[in-house]
Amino acid sequence: MTSQAAVAKLLADQIADPDTQWSLGTFGAIAEFARDPDEEVALSVSDGGVSAVTARGGIAIRVWDDMRPFASESLAKQHWNHRVAICLPVDTCAMNRRAALTELDVDADALREQDRGGVLFDLGLNAPQADLCIRVADRHVADELRRHVGRAVFEPDNPAMGLILAANPHRVFISRVGRAEVYQPIPPHDGKSPEGPHTHVLPKLLKSGRTHPATEPIPEGFVPCAHFYPAHPAKDSLGQARAFAPSRHDAFQRLLAELGAPESAAFKREVMAAVARGEQPWTEARVSGRGARANVRIALRHMKAAGDASQTLTAWLAAFDRAEPLADEIDDLSRGHAD
Questions:
Q1: Boundary residue ending a domain (136, 161, 186)
Q2: What residues make up the domain containing 309?
């Protein structure tokens, strides 16, 4: 198990890197934090946790005794996704699970001092490991929302969501490990999310009650309460393909070896070694189970992105890398965007 000091060092290294992105929330509702390399940022690093705050949003993560960072990869429409889940045990992670709009209090824990007079309202979306809130600074808007406290925000004829969309309050998503805040405006229903910090709320996915996508492996007995996403070797921060960066690939593979599932990493190495030796594609019987097949596809995509153009790799890709769009899209949607 990773020590508290090692977790604190890991978080400090990642918060200092402007290419690392962060998220906090649940399956179907997520707040994302990202910053530009030249963007002004207030960073805080200590043994107890880290934070980063810009004019567009912020993230703060605390270190817990039983916190477990877990690294994993999964398939995406192109390439693959990678992340480190910041997990807590199941019996530690639960939040309040309010099912109706609820007024809380002034937000004394706001990341910026100037926001600590705003009033928090829990949207009442009944998320397992996160309270999904808004922070209202306008007293008139707060008074209007108080008239609808106790009702579900997506209830037919409830004007609360319309008031929220018109007011553009800060979104504040809170879990046991910290909080994410988004100050940018809420895009219109048919609009595109802004670059940088933003939120996504997908009611259909929320209704599942899941804590994370089925495509994301999480250790048994744990729940992801936040994530960070180190710079990807084959795509940029907006998910667009870029020239393969070996240093970024190697950096995440080291995290995967240290914090991921050992059997998954070992299986990927076997696949890559078999391709390098010029072996014929393995039989389906040798690659049994969805997880095994996904690992084969990820290993092959690593090799392709790194520039392997061998006939052997082409044969393996033809045998194994057939699209499975539903799983791929769910993994992308859980984070709020597709690549």
A1: 161
A2: 260-329
The residue out of 145, 161, 177 marking a domain boundary is 161
Q: What is the pLDDT of residues 97-155, one digit of tens each?
A: 999 999 999 999 999 999 999 999 999 999 999 999 999 999 999 999 999 999 999 99
Strands (E), the chain: 21-26, 29-33, 42-46, 49-53, 57-62, 68-75, 80-89, 102-106, 119-122, 131-136, 170-175, 178-182, 198-201, 222-229
On the CB side of 234, how many CA atoms lie within 13 Å of its CA?
17
Cα 314 to Cα 158, 160, 240, 322, 323, distances in angstroms: 55, 54, 23, 12, 15
CB proximity list for 208: less than 8 A, separation 6 or greater = 27, 28
Residue 311 lies in a domain: yes
Report the number of distinct structural domains present in the chain.
2
Is 313 contained in some domain?
Answer: yes
Assess contact for 177 and 61: CB atoms under 8 A: yes
* Encoded tokens for 318: 């033809």
